[in-house]
Amino acid sequence: MTETLKLTNVVKYYQDGDARIEVLREVSLAVKPGEFAAVVGPSGAGKSTFLSIAGALLRPSEGQVYLAGQEITQLSQKQWTKIRLEQIGFIFQNSELIPYLTVMDQLRYMSVLAKRKGQEQRAQDLLTHLELANRLQQYPAALSGGERQRVAIARALMNDPQLILADEPTASLDSKRGREVVTMLRDEVHANHKAAVMVTHDERVLDLVDTVYQIEDGVLKKKD
Fold this sequence. Notes:
The complex is composed of two ATP-binding proteins (HrtA), two transmembrane proteins (HrtB) and a solute-binding protein. This protein has helices at 47-54, 77-87, 103-113, 120-129, 145-157, 175-191, and strands at residues 5-16, 19-31, 36-40, 62-67, 70-71, 88-91, 163-167, 195-200, 211-216, 219-222. It is of the alpha/beta class.
């Protein structure tokens, strides 16, 4: 089975005069379809850099990144944009919904960006599945934190991506709502054979994922 996401010996460093500052050190990871992985670690450990490289937002200094078997490290920025729109769904720490768009329009906008037509029913089905059918015409300001994150999950799934990347999705939620959101994400990954990587500080939800990695000082290791 081809891994949806594969990083091989990825290094990221910056030059500061004669000094080389390493943010990621020989990071390797593979996430298969239907697998939900979490990456945990302290602030400054390299989590954000790792997620940016995995999501085709930042080039590694060394090493390779594969998405569904395709090596993407050397692709152009234009090709990266296409990959992000069509193959990767992002869920951000504070949902990052567009404040002047309704719940339904958040998802419609994703279709517009990807130049996909006839997606109205898919948007409705996703929102209904995530228990938001009665909130379609609401704006983000009228939603609870948990509802906003559920909209963010629906938006991430709108273009049927192969890979979902979640950056601290429970950070602004209480423990109950945070667990609900991660449970929904897990269920989507397993039911629809997606691959997902969640960067988190929240160890209370780690029992919901399939694989846990620890990152510290730029070194990634699988936890037992």
